[in-house]
Amino acid sequence: MTAIQRELIYIWYYFQVQLEQIAGWWVLGMTAGSAVSVFARDRIHRIFQSLHGRKMGVLGIPAASILGIVSPLCMYGTIPIAASFSKSGIRDSWLAAFMMSSILLNPQLILYSGALGGKVLTVRIVSCFLCGSLGGLIIHFFCRNREFFSFNGFDEPKNKDTDPRLLIRYLKNLWRNIKATGPYFLIGVLLSALFQRYVPPEAMTALFGGNEAFGVLMAATIGVPLYACGGGTIPLLQQWLLDGMSIGSAASFMLTGPATKITNLGALKIVLGFWHFFLYLIYVIVFSLITGLITNLIV
User: Signal peptide position in this chain (predicted)?
Assistant: First the structure.
């Protein structure tokens, strides 16, 4: 047996172990996420639309943040929906909370994140809710008399879930979901196997856990280029946490990653314009760093 063959056997072993540990969470996220998308998405958006007629004031901001979290749309689906909300008169502060939370989290990713344990899952949900709510509050108080978004040219997205047969509609959505996220999930498992084989745990502890302030900064930084798909990063985070990554560093990574994913940034640049886009990046980085440091103090 050659050295290369031996290394491939080791990597395959780690890959299988990681896959067995996390595959169930991925399947649960896929099946439940498609169910929310097919059967509950329109109702969630109607609830948000109905908030417009109520005199909720700033209380509409946390409500919008919650609805953004439970909305199953990706960023390219969220922006056209937000454009239609804007046309109906919903204020920018509510839209900001909805869009920020929708970027960071969705029902499918919540279920994926269950593989990371109850503490990490709770931190992820709470931090995403607070990030969306605070962003909405900032716009409410500082941009009250001018528009923050520009949705010109955005039309409501075409609904692909139109098959009259409910089961077929669900299965089609599930298949699209598998094709969109499956490759990233397997890549994440493979990267986790490579980390287990070639990166010693003490190196991960030194990078993300030993010096907690430095670890949070590094996690926030590495989340920018590494994050491609939420499901694909869960195997990596699971292994990093086992190797000594602090929960605060994980929280920081889970905020900067989706918020600065290249596809999300491309869409946001269009609706924000240069200066608002720049402020958005500053807000995400500062919030993620503060959240990571506070989490390490509390958890």
Answer: none
Hunting for tokens 């960071």 — which residue is that? 104
* Widest Cα–Cα separation across the chain: 73
pLDDT at 123: 95
Q: Given this model, what pLDDT does residue 76 score?
A: 61
In whole angstroms, give the CA distance from residue 291 to residue 123: 9
Q: What is the DSSP string of 192-246?
A: HHHHHHHS-HHHHHIIIIISHHHHHHHHHHHHHHH-S-HHHHHHHHHHHHHTT--
Nearest to 256 by CA among 248, 111, 82: 248
What is the distance between the alpha carbons of residues 14 and 16, in angstroms, rounded to a whole number? 5
What's the confidence (pLDDT) of residue 228? 59
CA distances from 200 to 112, 206, 242 (A): 26, 10, 12
Q: Enter the DSSP assignment of 157.
A: P
C-alpha atoms less than 13 angstroms from C-alpha of 114 in its C-beta half-sphere? 13
Q: d(Cα 140, Cα 216) in Å, to the nearest integer?
A: 29
Question: What per-residue confidence (pLDDT) applies to 28?
Answer: 85
**Number of Cβ within a 10 Å radius of residue 280:** 20
* Dihedral Cα 118, 124, 129, 133, nearest 10 deg: 140
DSSP symbol at 51: G
Cβ atoms 99, 78 nearer than 8 A: yes
Whole-angstrom Cα distance, residue 164 to residue 54? 34
Residue 126 structure tokens = 């709470």
**How many helices, marked H, and strands, marked E, lie in the chain?**
13, 0
Q: Quick one: tokens of 174?
A: 């599930």
25-57 pLDDT, tens digit each: 888 888 888 888 888 877 887 887 777 666 777
pTM of the shown model: 0.84
What's the pLDDT band for 118 if we cut at 50, 70, 90? very high
